[in-house]
Amino acid sequence: MDVLALLAEARKAGLTITAQGDKLVVRGPRTLESLAKEVLARKPEMMGILREGQGTANLLSSQDAQDRLLERLRAGHLH
Question: What span, in angstroms and rounded, lies between the C-alpha atoms of 21 and 12?
């Protein structure tokens, strides 16, 4: 699964994923632990997406901003 699809799936399932400094922070219910581990295993790619989005969505503090960023990335509007 590509990293954008994984990020979208994780958020849809109820995980919150943010970059805080050099840490990838994943929060959500314990029942999603295996999905959270998949996200964490792709840390370098996830961090790249989140960092790119910080300049675009001003720290991606809301789920709506994160979802809009994902749609723009999928559409090829951000590189």
Answer: 24
Count how many residues are written for the chain.
Answer: 79
pLDDT category of residue 27 using cuts at 50, 70 and 90: very high
pTM for the whole thing?
Answer: 0.68
Q: Each residue of 30-52: b (16+ CB within 10 Å) or e?
A: eebeebbeebeebeeebeebbee
Q: Are strands 16-20 and 23-27 parallel, antiparallel or unpaired?
A: antiparallel
The percent of residues above 70 in pLDDT, for the chain, comes to 78
Give the end-to-end CA distance of the chain in Å, rounded to a whole number.
19
Q: What is the CA radius of gyration of the chain?
A: 12
